[in-house]
């Protein structure tokens, strides 16, 4: 009996635990939008029970300044003033800013709990492509018009303070609160973007009113030569015979209408990779082949997962409050008061 137990344990360690330790948790996604966080996550969240959290611990956040390497200790809400003002225009509706504050607070705590080794001795960094954007008050003021700086700042401070201690949970645990700039009218499920990661609260949802924002539509044009060399940066074997009708071909769409796989000549790549290689704002694009060039017409801005910031603003304009906005973008979640942080 004891032998069987030992064998079973060894089997489990060999088959499940060792590969899990060896597998790198870093997803190879390069983000190009200022309003997106990077995808680094050790995916342990669902295993931790709420009772194990000590939210008091996250009253103070250790922020790594990526450029200088300095670590600054900040009260979480003070830290969030710099995040919200770095991630969302102050001109957005107050309820959208509140939603952003709760999303950013949740994201911060999620990262601090689930990704503690990402930055040595720090909970999070100030780089938008690594964690989430953060800007100091002085720097923020220098970029605003002097006459509106004070009221902009007060609006952001109010969005953070009036939602203090509130975070988003699913099944009692903080969610991995992804957000992006513009969904193009429909968000994407995490499964379609990051393969195996299927967060139950990151489902595809539709939002009206996003077409009115500058982030909604964009275009990129490359000469045929330029396009080939872009693909060759990663796939040196790529050959595109532009005389062939289907020399560039979309092979598969995700359920939200974004490109899942696309073929350039003899090379088939994921839509997310095409986006990165070609510097497109999203994977929701069409293309036109002209005489000497190819034009990509892109809808939306960002990976499309979680809260759309322009969508949040559009919803706020039609009367939704921050809780309704959050529950629109994150499926079956709760907003809870963790403590008086
Ligand atoms: Zn970081």
Report on the structure:
The protein has 341 residues and is an alpha+beta fold. Among the domains are: 45-178 and 331-337, no CATH class; 217-299, no CATH class. Helices cover 34% and strands 18% of the residues. It contains ten helices and 14 strands. It has helices at residues 2-22, 76-87, 94-114, 137-143, 146-161, 190-194, 224-232, 271-278, 309-317, 322-329; strands at 60-64, 71-75, 124-125, 166-170, 173-174, 179-180, 217-223, 248-253, 259-264, 267-270, 285-289, 293-299, 307-308, 334-337. A three-stranded mixed sheet has the order 2-1-3. A three-stranded antiparallel sheet has the order 5-4-14. Helix 2 (76-87) packs across helix 5 and helix 3 (94-114) runs antiparallel to helix 9 (309-317). The radius of gyration is 22 Å and the shape is globular. Zinc ion (ZN) is lined by residues 119, 125, 127, 130-131.
What level of helicity do the residues show? 25-40%
Taken as a percent bin, the fraction of beta residues is: 15-25%
The end-to-end distance, rounded to whole angstroms, is: 51 Å
Uncertain runs: 11-35, 37-51
Give the overall form.
globular
Small molecules in complex: zinc ion
List the helices and strands in order: HEEHHEHHEEEHEHEEEHEEEHHE
Identify the quaternary structure here: single chain
Number of strands: 14
Radius of gyration: 22 Å
- Sketch the major β-sheet: 3 strands, mixed
* Computed structural class: alpha+beta
């Amino acid at each position: 009996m004891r032998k069987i137990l030992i064998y079973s344990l060894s089997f489990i360690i060999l088959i499940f635990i060792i590969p899990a330790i060896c597998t790198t948790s870093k997803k190879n996604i390069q983000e190009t939008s200022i309003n997106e966080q990077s995808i680094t996550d050790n995916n342990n969240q669902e295993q931790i029970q709420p009772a194990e959290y000590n939210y008091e611990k996250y009253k103070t956040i250790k922020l790594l300044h990526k450029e200088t390497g300095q670590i600054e200790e900040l009260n979480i809400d003070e830290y969030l003033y710099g995040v919200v003002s770095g991630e969302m225009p102050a001109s957005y509706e107050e309820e959208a800013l509140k939603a952003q504050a709760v999303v950013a607070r949740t994201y911060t705590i999620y990262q601090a709990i689930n990704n503690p080794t990402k930055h040595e001795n720090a909970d999070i960094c100030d780089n938008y492509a690594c964690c989430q954007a953060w800007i100091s008050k002085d720097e923020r003021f220098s970029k605003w018009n002097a006459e509106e700086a004070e009221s902009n700042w007060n609006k952001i401070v109010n969005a953070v303070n009036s939602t203090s201690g509130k975070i988003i949970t699913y099944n009692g645990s903080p969610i991995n609160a992804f957000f992006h700039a513009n969904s193009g009218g429909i968000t994407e499920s995490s499964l379609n973007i990051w393969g195996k990661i299927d967060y139950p609260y990151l489902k595809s949802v539709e939002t009206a009113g996003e077409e009115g924002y500058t982030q909604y539509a964009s275009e990129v044009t490359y000469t045929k030569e330029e396009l080939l060399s872009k693909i060759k940066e990663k796939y040196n074997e790529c050959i595109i015979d532009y005389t062939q009708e289907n020399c560039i071909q979309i092979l598969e769409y995700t359920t939200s209408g974004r490109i899942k796989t696309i073929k350039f000549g003899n090379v088939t790549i994921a839509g997310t990779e095409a986006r990165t290689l070609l510097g497109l704002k999203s994977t929701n694009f069409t293309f036109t082949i002209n005489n000497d060039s190819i034009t990509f017409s892109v809808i939306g801005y960002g990976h499309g997962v979680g809260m759309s910031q322009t969508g949040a603003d559009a919803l706020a304009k039609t009367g939704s409050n921050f809780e309704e906005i959050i529950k629109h973008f994150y499926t079956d979640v709760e907003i809870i008061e963790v403590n008086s942080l």
